[in-house]
Write a structure and sequence with these properties.
24-stranded antiparallel barrel, 34 strands, globular, 562 residues, two-stranded antiparallel sheet, mainly beta, 2 helices, single chain
């Protein structure tokens, strides 16, 4: 099977299989036979490949001139080996993260990776990916967004017929955040200094089963570190069932001073993460059972773990009804659904008692698909939730509706998601009427002179009212992405973002009004294969209290291959 993944469209995968369906548990079941190439196997296996991409960047920011020289190298000594290296990479051309509504949560939110160096070998690494709710899913052993500003990086990937392995090491200059998960919130600490990130993983395929080993380390210097060892497995006992699981064990000596100006060596803390999953899918049912336990002191500074000190059990049931018709609308697939989940705390000495209910979900719902790759879903949230340890147990009641479609060649994506009803205001620890709405649309227009215009608009707004019916918390954000393609060589890209969060003053809460903005314009010319000249300018303000940051830059990438 030939596949092409579009990085900035993280859900878009083009494949060559003409009969690819959603019924199979994996892509391997849909592979097409490849014959007649026996004489070429040895030639291709021994053929080497080398590519070097030096890049020169100049920028002027707040009246200061800066220039930097970096490079990327890709070397394939054999067909089964690939060596990647990067030195002082510049990611100024990478698209900004899409806005997320985060004011009414105490947990860190997942951000997808868009930097080219980190998009290689993600399947072997076990890179964290989001599930349908935006939370971390699966192994969660490596999350490249923990590396905010790498000075250099090196990765080696080997792929054999029944096994594969990857090893990487990067030097991060800091400026990002270190997460320390808890049962009710994720503590975030600044990473002011350098650190060394190292990760190794190998995986062996044994017929219908596979198993892997991994090791991870984040070294901050001065004896402060975070280390993780683990193993994972996958087993397919039949056509309809899939069993997966992993075990991770961590040890940390990392501590932070009060003003977060440096990372220090602290006392040694250990923890573990256990996860088991069973999926059963046949013509009539789609069922998934997940069991997870994360001890209070577990931490993975190279991964994404927003919650710890909990035990979670979840069950997703979906009855597959097949095709039909609804009010004259053709239905290709339809499923009544039920989601059950319970999260309770694990004991942590005098700091946290065990067995306390953090969240319980009871969500009956539906999903169906129809023409133009259209999906419609909805569910009722009838569970309960706590906002803090020992706090009252609240019972939010919301209706959640969603819609996605590819309506036309000029409107290739339209997506909307709505949550409405009695929502929990986490900071105020009370229920209130509220709503959360996210909209996304992608357009593509042909213009005179063989020009093309691509537009992507994302808008979001959420609020929760107080008992008096006033907006206690109001958050809105949006992003406009416009790409004007003049021809195969030249393009102009505009990204504009706005975000605002407003909190009304109350007895125990102070009023706040946080605003941020970001605008960038980049003109790019492709001189040849791997040779790119970019000119750009940006304006950014992280909050209303900070000055507007202005920047202009020029970047030249000149690739050489052999």
């Amino acid at each position: 099977m030939v596949t092409r993944s579009i990085p900035r469209e993280h859900a878009h995968l083009l494949v060559s299989a003409p009969l690819l369906s959603k019924d199979a548990l994996n892509f391997i079941a849909e592979l097409q036979p490849l014959v007649g190439l026996d004489d070429l196997v040895e030639q291709v296996r021994e053929r080497s490949f080398l590519s070097l991409r030096p890049e020169l960047t100049w920028r002027r920011e707040q009246g200061r001139n800066q220039s930097s020289l970096g490079a990327e190298l890709k070397w394939r000594p054999r067909a089964d080996w690939v060596i990647d290296a990067t030195l002082n990479p510049d990611f100024s051309q990478v698209e900004s993260d899409a806005p997320q509504l985060a004011a009414n949560t105490r947990f860190a939110l997942f951000q997808p990776e868009k930097r080219p160096f980190f998009l290689e070998s993600t399947d072997v690494v076990g890179q964290t990916r989001p599930d349908g709710s935006g939370a971390a899913h699966g192994l969660a052993a490596f999350y490249s967004r923990t590396l905010s500003d790498p000075d250099w990086g090196l990765r080696a990937t080997w792929r054999g017929a029944s096994a594969e392995a990857v090893g990487l090491s990067l030097r991060d200059a800091g400026g990002g955040q270190v997460l320390r998960p808890g049962a009710y919130a994720t503590a975030e600490y600044a990473q002011p200094g350098h650190s060394q990130a190292t990760f190794v993983r190998g995986r062996q395929q044994l017929g219908a089963a596979s198993w892997g080993l991994l090791a991870s380390e984040r070294d901050y210097g001065g004896g402060a570190f975070n280390r993780v060892l683990g193993s994972d497995f996958s087993w397919r006992p039949g056509e309809s069932d899939l069993l997966r699981g992993h075990w991770l064990q961590s040890a940390s000596t990392t501590a932070f001073d009060e003003d977060q100006s440096r990372v220090m060596r602290g006392s040694r803390e250990t923890g573990r993460k256990l996860w088991l999953s069973w999926q059963h899918r046949n013509a009539d049912w789609n069922q998934q059972l997940h069991v997870e336990e994360i001890t209070p002191r577990f931490a993975n500074d190279n991964g994404f773990v927003p919650q710890a000190g909990i035990r979670r059990v979840s069950l997703d049931l979906a009855r597959r009804l097949g095709s039909g018709e609804l009010a004259g609308l053709p239905i290709f697939e339809a499923e009544p659904q039920l989601k059950l989940e319970q999260t309770t705390t694990l004991a942590d000495g005098p700091l946290q008692r065990g067995g306390e209910l953090v969240e319980r979900k009871l969500e009956p719902g539906f999903w169906f698909s129809t023409a133009r790759n259209t999906g419609v879903w909805g569910h009722l949230a009838l569970g309960s939730q706590r906002a803090r340890p020992g706090g009252p147990l609240h019972a939010p009641r919301t209706l959640n509706l969603g819609f996605e479609s590819n309506p036309a060649p000029w409107l290739n994506l339209l997506e909307a998601e709505l949550e409405w009803g009695r929502r929990l205001d986490v900071e105020a620890e009370r229920l209130g009427n509220g709503m959360s709405l996210m909209l996304q649309a992608k357009f593509r227009f042909a213009l005179p002179g063989a020009w093309w215009l691509e537009l992507e608009q994302q808008l979001g707004q959420a609020w929760v009212d107080n008992p008096a019916g006033q907006r206690a918390l109001n958050e809105r954000g949006g992003q406009l992405l416009a790409v004007l393609q003049f021809d195969a060589r030249d393009s102009l890209r505009l990204i504009s973002q706005r975000h605002q969060t407003t909190r009304q003053a109350e007895a125990l809460l102070t009023a706040s009004d946080e605003k941020s903005r970001s605008d960038s314009l980049v003109l790019q010319r492709r001189i040849g294969h791997g040779r790119i000249l970019s000119l750009g300018a940006s304006l950014a303000r992280e909050s209303a209290r900070q000055p507007l940051q202005r920047q202009v830059f020029a970047k030249l990438v000149w690739a050489w291959s052999d």
